[in-house]
Amino acid sequence: MTALLTVERINSGYGDIPVLTDVSLTVDRGEIVAVVGANGAGKTTLLRTIAGLLPCRGGAVSFDGREIKNLSAHDVVVRGLVMVPEGGRLFPFMTVLENLELGAFNASARPALQRSLNDVFALFPILAERRRQLAGSLSGGERQMCAIARAIMAQPKLLMLDEPSLGLSPLMVERVFDLVPVLVREKDLTVLIVEQNVGDVLSMAARGYVIERGQVTRSGSGQALLTDPEVQRAYLGI
Ligand SMILES: Nc1ncnc2c1ncn2[C@@H]1O[C@H](COP(=O)(O)OP(=O)(O)OP(=O)(O)O)[C@@H](O)[C@H]1O
Ligand SMILES: [Mg+2]
Asked: Which of 19, 41, 195, 212 is the most exposed place for a label (fewest CB within 10 A)?
């Protein structure tokens, strides 16, 4: 397998405050890879740095065979690396349809807008039903679906999901987790997913990385991490 995303020893933070120290990871094509860790460990910072939303000091980030470290967030999206931020960040006073259309705003995705819309409505029939509704009035689960659908409108190769299960009921969490492998299969996607729901995400992911205080402290197959006594003690309450 060839790596779609390679992150090599990156450092990042906010102003003078360092958060990530020498973080490395890879995501192969067609893989689901999980990043887990406690609150404040640096998971969101990692995704935002990869997405070009935060400057990256040192190291290298390559995507689809090209260096992307110094690209703008917009150019990263155009290359096919799209993030669904924590909480979805929809535009609440715009309709579902308008939010989805904005997902296809970039020049590479725009020509396929109608086809992409049909695709996401087939994947998420609830969004087709609610297309005229303001995004701010969706339920938490519907909002997360809409945020994922909006990202798919941008025609990603790699989808980065930041805690998609946050704030959802157990039933909705299950639906979101069921959806990820379907997206990988049907949309030919690769997924890097950050989660606090450690047991569920490691069961789904091929591989995972544990981040503690801005550093990768463990990595391995989802199964290996699930049975790792340290991971069980720290994150699974076993
Ligand atoms: N805009 C910011 N300015 C300064 N410090 C920040 C900023 N955003 C995050 N931090 C700090 O960076 C560290 C890592 O935060 P980050 O949001 O990456 O954690 P996380 O692993 O995503 O946590 P959570 O699971 O709670 O979402 C924290 O100490 C946090 O306080
Ligand atoms: Mg976070």
From this structure: 212
41 lines ligand 1 (CB under 6 A): yes
pTM value is 0.95
Measured in Å, residue 58 CA sits from the centre of ligand 2 at: 22
**195 inside domain:** yes
Ligand having the closest approach to the CA of 53: 1
Provide the number of structural domains found in the chain.
1
Closest atom, ligand 1, to C-alpha of 13: 12
9: pLDDT confidence band, cut at 50, 70 and 90? very high
Query: Which protein residue has the closest C-alpha to ligand 1 atom 16?
Result: 42
Asked if the structure places residue 15 within a domain, the reply is: yes
Residue 114 maps to a domain: no
Residue-range definition of the domain harbouring residue 219:
1-80+158-165+189-238
pLDDT band at 108 (very low <50, low <70, confident <90, very high): confident
Exposure letters 148-177 (e unless 16+ CB within 10 A, then b): bbbbbbbbbbbbbbbbbbbebeeebbeebb
What's the CATH code of the domain at 214? 3.40.50.300
